[in-house]
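Exercise 7b. Backbone tokens:
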């Protein structure tokens, strides 16, 4: 029996600034259909902070349970099989998917033809299926070794953006002529506005795409050249308040919501709440005129897969992904964080909103990935 040393990066569920590195040991003697993966790399964006902030409400802590009072924030990345008791999964295969911030993950696999497998470990069976599937990179037409960092960073966020774009188009944009996107420099926002701008051009839509961002990020946001108008949060008065408007809010900032709702009044016809980039300012003294509607991507994905079928869903997603990745890789630089101490620094900076939008953050915890 060979012992495999592993670590989990855990955070206190009700006090996200409190961290604890947990050491554990796996054995290569697995039960039938179990597979042990060594996590080579995962991305870290403000989306991971959202997972932590709403972890209890949306069950994100349930994916990778750990010791009492603590949780493991999920992340998207790539891992290699180091031990397998499943007849169709071999040591050395590489899979993209939803992983813990850890060096290893033990799964119980159920394969899906040659595309990959589902983790059917009992505690995950009641959780959204989109998070439980692991894609074999050798069978993934959109995967290349050269772009796997961008895949880790953008693909999970891109799925959300793809689904929002599709949802709004199906609703005919609620008859709006203006779409306001907050936290315009965030990676999910960049993906969304790229899709919206492409749709606007192809379908000759009358839509004014407005990005709201901090003053220091205006230059970066301008590089992608897809927003019709970019405003800092200090210049909300320049918004065309008399246009029928949809808000896509990635900040979660209560006071910003209040200002926008008061400014637009009845011309705010749909208020879509997506992210919590500014998670520490979710509360405010003034009551919001309207609450908005939270967009939960897994629900919309299930709806679309039923309508289109899983194959067509993946084909449409793949075409949109190729369009986006060709544009975004020109303005993003990859920054690697190696080992748990480096991850601590990145994590705490992210909690405090210290985000450089020009960086795509990749974390590598396992010892073999640091060689």
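Sequence design result:
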């Amino acid at each position: 029996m060979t012992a495999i040393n592993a670590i989990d990066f855990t955070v206190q569920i009700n006090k996200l600034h409190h961290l604890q590195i947990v050491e554990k040991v796996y054995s290569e003697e697995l039960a039938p259909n179990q597979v042990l993966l060594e996590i080579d790399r995962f991305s870290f964006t403000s989306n991971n902070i959202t997972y932590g902030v709403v972890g209890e409400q949306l069950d994100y802590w349930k994916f990778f349970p750990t010791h009492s009072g603590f949780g493991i924030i999920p992340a998207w990345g790539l891992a290699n099989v180091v031990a397998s008791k499943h007849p169709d999964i071999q040591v050395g295969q590489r899979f993209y998917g939803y992983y813990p911030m850890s060096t290893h993950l033990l799964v119980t696999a159920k394969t899906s033809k040659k595309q990959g497998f589902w983790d059917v470990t009992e505690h995950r069976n009641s959780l959204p299926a989109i998070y439980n599937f692991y894609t074999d990179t050798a069978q993934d037409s959109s995967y290349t070794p050269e772009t796997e960092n961008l895949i880790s960073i953008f693909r999970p966020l891109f799925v959300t953006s793809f689904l929002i774009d599709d949802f709004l188009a199906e609703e005919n944009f609620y008859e709006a002529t203006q779409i306001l996107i907050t936290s315009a420099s965030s990676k999910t926002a960049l993906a969304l506005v790229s899709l919206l701008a492409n749709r606007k051009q192809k379908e000759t839509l009358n839509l004014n795409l407005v990005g709201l961002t901090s003053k220091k990020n205006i230059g970066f946001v301008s590089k992608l050249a897809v927003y019709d108008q970019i405003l800092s949060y200090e210049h909300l008065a320049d918004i065309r308040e008399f246009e029928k408007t949809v808000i896509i809010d990635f900040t979660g900032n209560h006071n910003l919501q209040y200002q926008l709702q008061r400014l637009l009044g009845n011309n705010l016809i749909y208020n879509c709440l997506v992210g919590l980039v500014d998670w520490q300012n979710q509360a405010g003294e003034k009551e919001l005129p309207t609450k908005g509607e939270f967009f939960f991507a897994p629900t919309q994905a299930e709806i679309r897969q039923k309508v289109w079928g899983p194959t067509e869903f993946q084909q449409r997603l793949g075409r949109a992904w190729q369009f986006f990745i060709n544009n975004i890789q020109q303005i993003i630089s990859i920054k690697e964080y190696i080992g748990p101490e480096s991850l601590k620094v990145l994590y705490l900076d992210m909690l405090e909103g210290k985000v450089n939008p020009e960086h795509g953050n990749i974390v590598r915890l396992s010892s073999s990935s640091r060689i």
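Instructor comment: The first strand starts at residue 3 and ends at 12. Residues 3-140+336-352+362-370 form a domain with the Quinone Oxidoreductase; Chain A, domain 1 fold (CATH 3.90.180.10).
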